[in-house]
């Protein structure tokens, strides 16, 4: 929450810590680009120097292009020059000249008002669908009286959710129900639909009660 971010900022300022944000879901977390960027902008307003890595793999559907950027906020022009010189060395030795197709798609979309508006609407639609799937899954698990608490499903954000299932329960879902998730219990919420929600919820119920 904003209040929690304010507390984190106060601690980091007191301890002279350097913030490095990973913005992988802007727009997908809440459906609002500005709301999802609130924490980064607040830290900037508090006078922090910081890095913010941003990925467009998810919110632009450009997984195979691996498009993103690194935003650097510095207090003065000299610091910017120092950081830029180091970044140029890293870029040169790491990839030098990456493919530009994905970056051009993002740049064109963000700089064209009509495309930008359409993209924001698409991102909002996808985010709302994920939020709905979270709410529906939690509702079904609670309706089944599935042991444990399931509020974390709706409290988490983004495309993925940690279910809280242990490794044996995960293996049961994979082998017996053909529901595929990480060994950590992390599941892709985008794989849920109105047609498979009941099946997934009942399968999780079985995994929790049987294993």
TrEMBL record:
One Pfam family this sequence matches: Aminotran_1_2
GO aspect biological process, one term: aspartate biosynthetic process
Gene3D superfamilies, A to Z: Aspartate Aminotransferase, domain 1, Type I PLP-dependent aspartate aminotransferase-like (Major domain)
Any one annotated GO CC term: cytosol
Stored CDD domains: AAT_like (cd00609)
Domain Aminotransferase class I/classII large stretches: 1-204
Cofactor: pyridoxal 5'-phosphate
Keyword Lipoprotein: no
Gene Ontology MF, one: L-aspartate:2-oxoglutarate aminotransferase activity
Compartment annotation: Cytoplasm
Annotated EC: 2.6.1.1
Catalyzed reactions: L-aspartate + 2-oxoglutarate = oxaloacetate + L-glutamate; (2S)-2-aminobutanoate + 2-oxoglutarate = 2-oxobutanoate + L-glutamate; L-cysteine + 2-oxoglutarate = 2-oxo-3-sulfanylpropanoate + L-glutamate; 3-sulfino-L-alanine + 2-oxoglutarate = 3-sulfinopyruvate + L-glutamate
InterPro entries: Aminotransferase_I/II_large (IPR004839), Asp_trans (IPR000796), NHTrfase_class1_PyrdxlP-BS (IPR004838), PyrdxlP-dep_Trfase (IPR015424), PyrdxlP-dep_Trfase_major (IPR015421), PyrdxlP-dep_Trfase_small (IPR015422)
Keywords recorded for this protein, A-Z: Amino-acid biosynthesis, Aminotransferase, Cytoplasm, Pyridoxal phosphate, Transferase
Assembly information from the UniProt record: Homodimer.
Other remarks in the entry: In eukaryotes there are cytoplasmic, mitochondrial and chloroplastic isozymes.
Family from the record: Belongs to the class-I pyridoxal-phosphate-dependent aminotransferase family.
Protein name as catalogued: Aspartate aminotransferase
Lineage of the species this protein comes from: Eukaryota, Metazoa, Chordata, Craniata, Vertebrata
């Amino acid at each position: 929450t904003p209040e929690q971010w304010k507390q984190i900022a106060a601690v980091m300022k007191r301890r002279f810590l350097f913030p490095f944000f990973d913005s992988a879901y802007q727009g997908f977390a809440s459906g609002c680009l500005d709301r999802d960027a609130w924490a980064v902008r607040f830290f900037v307003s508090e006078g922090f120097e910081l890095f913010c890595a941003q990925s467009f793999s998810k919110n632009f559907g450009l997984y195979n292009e691996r498009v993103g950027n690194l935003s650097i906020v510095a207090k003065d022009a000299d610091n910017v020059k120092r950081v830029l010189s180091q970044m140029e060395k890293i870029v040169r030795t790491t990839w030098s000249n990456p493919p530009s197709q994905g970056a051009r798609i993002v740049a064109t979309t963000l700089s064209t008002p009509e495309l930008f508006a359409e993209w924001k609407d698409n991102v909002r639609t996808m985010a709302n669908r994920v939020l709905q799937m979270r709410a529906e899954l939690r509702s079904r698990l609670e309706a089944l009286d599935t042991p444990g608490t399931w509020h974390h499903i709706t409290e988490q954000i983004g495309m993925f959710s940690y279910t809280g299932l242990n490794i044996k329960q995960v293996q049961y879902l994979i082998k017996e129900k053909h529901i595929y998730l990480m060994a950590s219990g992390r599941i892709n919420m985008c794989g849920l639909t109105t047609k498979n929600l009941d099946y997934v919820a009942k399968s999780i119920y079985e995994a929790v009660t049987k294993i």
